[in-house]
Automatic annotation (TrEMBL):
This is Metallopeptidase family protein.
Length: 129
């Protein structure tokens, strides 16, 4: 048995992620057609290293791919763009379902913003850091 105060099934967690995506304005959702958004238990060591985090530091989500503002028509991305949302770190961080829903929404928006081309500094200024 886990000592986490909050632990949802993968399906229930994925539904919250889908609801967060549905609340994003249509103009932004329209650019997500070729982006895979998946729920994973936790990030891999390589994912943590990619963002400069150690093995015990929490990572709620990650965008892997080429941001829209860095794309070239002559040199398209080799792999599909992917956003991973990590269930275990989010549940470990949140004490209530309401807090979890809010953190999932912030994480989804944050990672989509990276896909669109926002930097961490820009997201911090907008309150999504």
């Amino acid at each position: 048995m886990s000592d986490r105060p909050l632990q949802l099934t993968t399906e229930a967690f994925a539904r919250i992620v889908e609801q967060a995506i549905a609340r994003i304005p249509e103009e932004i959702r329209a650019v997500l057609d070729n982006v895979l958004i998946s729920v994973k238990d936790r990030p891999t060591a390589a994912m943590l290293a990619e963002v400069g985090l150690g093995p015990d530091e929490p990572l709620f989500g990650i965008f892997l791919g080429v941001p829209l503002n860095e794309r070239s028509l002559a040199d398209p991305p080799l792999y599909p763009d992917t956003i991973h949302i990590f269930q275990d770190p989010l549940e470990e961080y949140c004490a209530t379902r309401e807090q979890l829903i809010e953190e999932i929404e912030i994480t989804v928006v944050h990672e989509i913003a990276h896909f669109v081309g926002f930097s961490d500094e820009e997201l911090e200024r907008l309150g999504y850091g």
